[in-house]
Structures are given as structure tokens and as C-alpha cells.
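Researcher: Let's do a round of design. I'm pasting the C-alpha cells now; please hold your answer until I've finished.
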């Protein structure tokens, strides 16, 4: 499986090398790559999941990639995963994959596949240590929904290069069991805990980051709780940049 996933990603890059993200993408053209959006929940279920799926499908239509949305864990088998450049865990919760699906997903990522985690993706698979390393940190708690300031500390990444250094927005702000830097992630943005109530991580409170896992790429944002998030141009561009980076379409 490792070689299969890596081969597919490499092939997708060669086939789509001339396809730049564009809002003028021809609907009749072959997609540059394919994205699987997985939103299964066995814990808390976010009512923003339909808006998240719709936003990613709209981004795909605008920028030339195909999107399949599912809550069916049987997609997590080698031959099926190999069809996708990126798997998005969109507000998943609980233990959503059995042992065979876990093995297939681990091989897919380590063989060159892409992972994008959105918000409650960190409230998922607590009993699977490898997944904890993939997502970077597990959810611990959150205060009430409120406005806070996100400090963008790296504006060179495709998911943050369009953002202001101080980004004020309303969302549900996660605290984590441990700082994701323990998993050697590259932090893109942190929360300024002086701008809202309920932060528990102190001066260094990462809220978006990325890293590599084997030959694969993993990107996570803790934002995306509210329905309104998926209509925000800046958040949609943030999400798009994460997908493109994980798919090796942007660096």
C-alpha cells in the first residue's frame, strides 16, 4: 500500500502539473486530484458539517479538484484510498475507524497521502496513538463561542499567506491535552489568550499547524466549529491552502 499511495500521488502531480488553481476552471476538464471528505461522528456531532462539505465542494469546483463526501468507513481500504490525494477529517468525533481501516489509512499517509484535519478532527480516535501524532494534539476542552484574535506566525504557507497577522474572528476555541509542538509540528498560527475568556494553554497556544508523517503530509486547523465559518472568505482560503498543500499542489 505504501508504494501504491506514493505512486498515485506522484502520478497525479505529473498529470496535473499544468493545472493551476483557478476560479475559471473548466467544468468539463478532468480533475487535477481527488479529495475524500470524511465526517463520521460517534461522539458530538457538529451541525456545521453540511456547510463544511458544501464549502469544500465549492472550492473543488472553483479550483479544479473533485470532492467525495462520505461517512462510510469502508472507504478506508487500500484500493479506495489510493484514488484520493487528500483525506479531510471534517469535524469527526469518537472512534470512527476499525483496526483494518486504521492500518489502511496509516499505510496511505506514510506512503505519501495527504491528511487535512478540521476542528473536531482532534476529538477523534483517542485510543489510537498514531492518529494522535498525525493530528498533532487531542482536544481537551473549550469555552463558549466568542471572538478572539488569532496571531499568524507564519505567513509563507499557502493556508496563511493571505491572512492578516492579527486575525479577529468568532469560533469555538479549543484547548488541547498537550502542546502539538511535542510532535514536532510547524505552527502556523496561535491564539492570543488575552483576547478571549477560557484559554488554558498560556502564551503559546497553537491553533493551526502542519507536518510530515512518513512520506505523507498532515495539516490541521482547530477552527471551523460554526456554520458561519464556512462562509468566511478568509477561512475558506485558509482551508483551501491546507488542502492544496496536503495534495502537494502548493508549497
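Researcher: That's everything. Go ahead.
Model: Designed sequence:
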Amino acid at each position: 500500500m505504501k508504494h501504491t499511495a506514493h505512486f498515485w500521488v506522484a502520478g497525479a502531480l505529473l498529470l496535473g502539473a499544468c493545472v493551476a488553481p483557478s476560479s475559471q476552471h473548466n467544468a468539463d476538464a478532468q480533475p487535477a486530484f481527488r479529495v475524500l471528505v470524511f465526517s463520521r461522528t460517534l461522539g458530538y456531532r457538529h451541525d456545521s458539517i453540511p456547510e463544511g462539505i458544501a464549502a469544500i465542494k465549492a472550492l473543488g469546483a472553483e479550483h479544479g479538484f473533485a470532492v467525495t463526501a462520505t461517512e462510510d468507513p469502508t472507504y478506508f481500504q487500500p484500493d479506495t484510498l489510493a484514488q484520493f490525494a487528500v483525506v479531510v477529517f471534517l469535524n469527526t468525533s469518537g472512534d470512527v475507524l476499525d483496526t483494518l481501516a486504521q492500518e489502511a489509512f496509516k499505510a496511505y499517509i506514510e506512503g505519501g497521502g495527504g491528511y487535512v484535519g478540521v476542528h473536531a478532527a482532534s476529538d477523534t480516535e483517542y485510543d489510537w496513538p498514531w492518529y494522535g501524532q498525525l493530528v498533532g494534539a487531542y482536544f481537551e476542552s473549550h469555552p463558549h463561542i466568542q471572538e478572539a484574535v488569532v496571531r499568524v506566525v507564519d505567513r509563507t504557507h499557502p493556508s496563511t499567506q493571505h491572512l492578516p497577522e492579527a486575525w479577529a474572528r468568532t469560533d469555538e476555541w479549543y484547548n488541547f491535552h498537550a502542546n502539538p509542538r511535542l510532535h514536532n509540528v510547524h505552527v502556523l498560527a496561535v491564539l492570543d489568550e488575552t483576547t478571549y475568556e477560557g484559554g488554558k494553554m498560556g502564551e503559546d497556544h497553537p491553533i493551526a499547524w502542519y507536518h510530515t508523517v512518513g512520506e505523507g503530509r498532515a495539516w490541521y486547523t482547530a477552527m471551523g466549529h460554526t456554520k458561519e465559518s464556512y462562509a468566511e472568505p478568509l477561512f475558506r482560503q485558509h482551508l483551501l491552502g491546507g488542502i492544496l498543500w496536503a495534495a502537494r499542489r502548493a508549497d
